[in-house]
């Protein structure tokens, strides 16, 4: 399966160490089919609500690790249930682990927290029958509640409260540890995993844990550990809220329809309901893309608003050009060399000024259109992202390994380019902890030459309508693709080394009514030692294949013989493009290699592809992913 390329299954551990709260949790079945969950010294949650809280301490359970929740949901709570069976499976799980009665809990809502005693549990409705503990121990938020008010509220609810609103009062005996953990799993599930519309899927015959629970759980921890760009997190939460509102409107409209009525009002409501249903399907599909680790990787998102709103300064009113020199210190020999080789040619005009800076970020932030930044040899550690909204030139004075810019702090990306004509050369960029990528060309044109890019997460991203020219660069270490190319972009890759990444080049050929095909030139690149594919194309699914399938062309293209491939003459004359691969002439692999080339030609996304070398890529030199 293609999914195995991008993420791995977690092992089925029977025992694991709960490091953050210091207990060993063992899960297993006894001879009676009951769950054995043996926590050792579950920790207490001190000062419930506030330091001056009147309430007793509860169990500390909200800092569970991914493995703990994964194991509980997969093996004990949900198993292989369908969406329509979730509630029944959950009730069955709770029946095995919950104490049936006579335990104290804090009933917490948005308005108050109050101490109650559980008299009975009604697992079918996931509720508990409770009594108020007297004298009343209660904390309120923004209101005042007396004992009589609380009794009246319980009377209205028939003394039944949702189980997920209960937090078990801490007890050192260990008798209620299983109950506390079970309620935590229940509470977390309905807050972060379950969606109101999950039961609406017409195809109910699927494993709910595999399709929904696992990807949503992974996404929750990816967000918690800051492995997802802030813009994508904001987009996801916004989609969730919009989808919830849409479903509520749809549910109300559906409940008001009469089954046997042919009235004009009902017909209008039915049309509105169909529109809402279509909107709901579109929103849930977008959520699925973000929740699925593979689709999130290959489809991603359009970027956050702050990055898109970066405005350039434009030219100075005076018309003066500025050369910005970046150095912490320099000797007379280096200064003389700089003067002869760069400053005298650049500053021949009288309207040119020279400014000095100690770091690249301050130099770039001071630039206006047409300025030049010259960075002298040294290691420059920066904490902020570098934004390039104007047409400027940034060059290193020396070899790339001598002029190094390193980003250490976490952030969405390292370099953001939106200028109409930006040029980078002779610099080594080292990425540390960036979430989105080492370089993102969002719009305009960026020409990068003789640079080294040492990635830690994603490599170079070329967004829709952007233009990247990358020549004689060395890119390695990306945990995603070395270069990600979006629809409607223009990308020219000439003489580069792209290696030791997840994939070499990822081409996103999915289009909508606003986008066009990408336009790509690849010449004389060496793409090698990537974990997945040398080049992989992502495109919409067709009727013949299932979404998520990979069509893999196992062609090991080496640097021995150059061969021209084309289909029939009409295609060659119509397309009018150069198709040339360096490849090893192996009779066993010639057919698949020709097929790979023909598929790429049929896509019409390459202006030219010739002289490239492909070596030791883990899965294949070429692959196609259908979504």
From TrEMBL:
One of its GO terms (biological process) is fibroblast growth factor receptor signaling pathway. It is found in: Cytoplasm, Cytoskeleton, Spindle. The gene is shcbp1. Keywords: Cytoplasm, Cytoskeleton. It comes from the Eukaryota. Residues 68-296 form the SHC SH2 domain. The lineage of its organism: Eukaryota, Metazoa, Chordata, Craniata, Vertebrata. GO terms for cellular component: spindle. Residues 434-538 form the Right handed beta helix domain. This is SHC SH2-domain binding protein 1. It holds the Pfam family SHCBP_N.
